[in-house]
Fold this sequence. Notes:
By secondary structure, this protein is mainly alpha-helical. Helices cover 35% and strands 7% of the residues.
Amino acid sequence: NDDYGHAAGDAALQTVAAALKHVTRRGTAVARYGGEEFAILMPDTDTGEGTTVAQRICQYLADGSAANHSVMHRSITVGMGLAPFPWPGWGGPRRWARPLGGNGGAGRVW
């Protein structure tokens, strides 16, 4: 937005969203999480496969493949983080659930 204006920023977000949908497999949930953040939920995907998908997304955006299909006509670079779920040691929801009653927990959201 600072260098190219809000219209270009909007186009960049649309290009990234289209790239995420293009590169990820069917059954993957792609959502805009914040101003310029996206979340990708990939069921039944291990860390290695998730890393491969993230690398494909970065490459697809950086090499201009996405730009050829958008109004941007320039490459985009992104940074990505990967968080597997459930993570090792998760232990299931009972381990992490807190009681909603008693000991000051009534009416609170944890």
